[in-house]
Amino acid sequence: MMEREFKAEVEVLSTAQHENLVSLQGYCVHNGFRLLIYSYMENGSLDYWLHEKTEGASQLDWPTRLKILRGASCGLAYMHQICEPHIVHRDIKSSNILLDFGLSRLILPYRTHVTTELVGTLGYIPPEYGQAWVATLRGDVYSFGVVMLELLSGKRPVEVFKPKMSRELVGWVHHMRSEGKQEQIFDPILRGKGYEQEMVKVLDVACMCVNHNPMKRPTIQEVVDWLKTVGSLRDQNKS
Fold this sequence. Notes:
It contains nine helices and four strands. By secondary structure, the chain is mostly helical. Strands 1-2 form a two-stranded antiparallel sheet. Strands 3-4 form a two-stranded antiparallel ribbon. One of its GO terms (cellular component) is membrane. It is a single-pass type I membrane protein. GO terms for molecular function: ATP binding; protein serine/threonine kinase activity.
């Protein structure tokens, strides 16, 4: 039964073909272990560049970070709205966003459908999952909003060794905005480079995505459309 279910899930994943999704190349079942084989992305993950790689974050200027968000949002919109059956990712996080420079690609999870099994990563899990235990499209939007805040601030979603008030990124961002200190949210590497207006717009979108009330969050397609308008004048001037 489990193996049949696994193969059915793999078939769903193999139909998901989009330039911003990492391609599933095959799978293997051996001695009870199940492996999915994806295309190798030599540049590694967004988490690696933002938080682990020496000088990695400084190489991610604002136009690059915006391009990463646009690419990842398009991949997620394809999963939510175009792919049949629709796919709930359930574990959007910076380590599941791989870089192929300028473009970003999402790793698909193994279990694809709405489920009663709680999954996710601390700091990215929507607040409603604690009560409902059901993964949803709006839950994915919350997790994507956290990734947006991560790129804007350069901070991890949860920083264990920080004082309690600034430990969780979402709570800290809401607090800073309520005190009128939103410019302090932005990664120091990004400040003073002339992109403040664009970053404020993306911050507004991110805060809508991490709204505590899932019904007040935008759809991922709305996020895609908003991100397209951010920096569009700059893109026109370059062409």
